[in-house]
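Reviewer 2 asked us to include a model.

Predict the structure of this chain.
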Amino acid sequence: MSGLSYTNFIAPGLIMMTMLTAAFSAAVSVVYMAKWTKIIEEILVSPMSAMNVTISYLVVGIFRGLIVGCIVGIISLYFTHLRIEHIIYMLFIATLACGIFSLFGVINGLLAKSFDQVSIIPTFVITPLTYLGGVFYSIDILPLFWQKVALFNPVIYIINTFRYAFYGHADTNIFMSPILMLGVFLVLFLLTTYMFKLRKGLSD
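Predicted model (structure tokens):
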């Protein structure tokens, strides 16, 4: 696949897939449990600003995502021959991707009103997007129509930029993808901070 053995091709995608899931799950569970136990109210009446609260929950997701990614990466060395051509780029993409999904998790945790609503996004949104995000195949093998459809999946860009850091090959533009990811991150960060400032989802 793309000039690589299949195990080498899917390894970066599997690492990123577990990182995204871990980052989201960590953030959404911490925020929702803080709501459920009323601990978050004590945090919001403390001298911490809304931005500081956002950063705190953001770091939780990023930290867990990176740890899980490292563990999966180490395990994958027993089955593949991973090589990292752009380590700084890899760390940047990994941190940024975990940050985006961590913020999604925080927003989901704030808006969720039950444990069922906490699991809706990872089950019906994140899982399908990651499985159809180029983890197990290159979009180049798809018919032209489905290639264009696949480009509307944001996870495609995350997976491919991460794979580029390993092998120097990607199916998408490696310069535009980080810029788009950074833009999404900033929007989500400001939105999450605004929600904490308004106590959105905490009054019902």
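The chain has one domain: 6-198. The mean pLDDT is 85. We have added this to the supplementary material.
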